[in-house]
Amino acid sequence: MxxxxxxxxxxxxxxxxxxxxxxxxxxxxxxxxxxxxxxNIIPGLEKELEGRAAGDKxxxxxxxxxxxxxxxxxxxxxxxxxxxxxxxxxxxxxxFQAQTQGxxxxxxxxxxxxxxxxxxxxxxxxxxxxxxxVEIASVRExxxxxxxxxxxxxxxxxxx
Length: 160
Ligand code: ZN
Hints:
The chain has 160 residues and is mainly beta. It folds into 2 domains: 7-68 and 127-149, Roll (Chitinase A, domain 3), CATH 3.10.50.40; 73-120, Thrombin, subunit H (Beta Barrel). 8% of the residues lie in helices and 39% in strands. It is built from 2 helices and 9 strands. It has helices at 43-49, 144-149, and strands spanning 7-16, 22-25, 32-35, 57-62, 76-80, 95-100, 103-113, 116-120, 130-141. The strands form 2 sheets. Strands 1, 2, 3, 4 and 9 form a 5-stranded antiparallel beta sheet that branches. The chain has a 4-stranded antiparallel beta sheet with strand order 5-8-7-6, with no helix packed on it. Strand 7 (103-113) and strand 8 form a beta hairpin. The protein is elongated. It starts with 6 loop residues before the first strand and ends in an 11-residue tail after the last helix. The chain binds zinc ion. Residues 149, 151, 153, 158, 160 line the site of zinc ion. Keywords: Chaperone, Cytoplasm, Isomerase, Rotamase. It is found in: Cytoplasm. It comes from Halomonas dongshanensis. InterPro entries: PPIase_dom_sf, PPIase_FKBP_dom.
């Protein structure tokens, strides 16, 4: 069957940036399973999978606008060193959960300058052009409960 609204799709993928570096891959793992049409995966990829079937292989290029968004400068912030109580060595690359007005946000330390820490609340893949090599493993129809919940149950999905 072809992928359409409310299909449960399992696919293998390798994600690279424009420099050819592998950012993520399902190799050696179970395929990624999602409910089609429910916004479970980034829009640019979901759109290209529409109408495909099990066994199809495709390469999908996704711009940041249809991926993890553009880099937003206002999500770069300077935070006093004191805000990280209990952490002895703050180094670039460390990730923390920050409490913001919009709820919890994962931030990454960009640099440490004396008593000031620069953190970045952008998604690590914001602003990145994404290249997906995809192989579709299986396609099935979602059941009523999955459609109602907006996600896949059972294998590769949510168990509850
Ligand atoms: Zn559920």
